[in-house]
Write a structure and sequence with these properties.
By secondary structure, the protein is an alpha+beta fold. The protein has one domain (13-122). Helix content is 15%, strand content 36%. The protein is built from 2 helices and 5 strands. It has helices at 28-31, 85-98; strands at residues 15-22, 39-54, 65-78, 105-107, 120-122. The chain has a 5-stranded mixed sheet with strand order 2-3-1-5-4, with helices on one face. Mean pLDDT is 69; it is low at 1-26.
């Protein structure tokens, strides 16, 4: 397992941070599975937590946010070498939509923050 310090954002073997907010955190893994061949870098679970999510592009000093609370499962994955960042992004977006998640933010490369290439999906 790689250390977070060893991850170079310039070639970011994409790190996907997926926040899954559920009524029952124990069922999170059955709703959204990791992409086949990906490596789990870290997971955080809380029975009840408060989380501030970015819900719009990072523009200026006051980005649009939404504060939510409930059970939380947050997992960071490293993508397989043979999977493109776009393939991974679209795969998770489709899984969340199919599972009837409300998509609060879906950012493709360069559209969330012009200073960094960030991909994120919050559902």
């Amino acid at each position: 397992m790689k250390s977070f310090k060893n991850i170079n954002p310039s070639f970011l073997l994409i790190i996907l941070t997926l926040f899954t907010i559920l009524i029952n955190a124990q069922n999170a893994e059955s709703l959204v599975s990791p992409f086949k061949g990906s490596t789990t870098l870290g997971t955080h679970e809380a029975r009840f937590s408060r989380l501030t999510l970015l819900v719009g592009p990072l523009e200026g000093k006051n980005p649009s946010t939404l504060e939510i609370e409930g059970a939380l499962v947050s997992t960071i994955y490293e993508r397989p070498d043979n999977v493109s960042p776009y393939e991974l992004f679209k795969s998770y977006l489709n899984v969340l939509k199919t599972a009837d998640f409300d998509i609060l933010l879906a950012c493709e490369e360069g559209k969330c923050n012009s200073k960094k290439n960030v991909k994120a999906i919050y559902g």
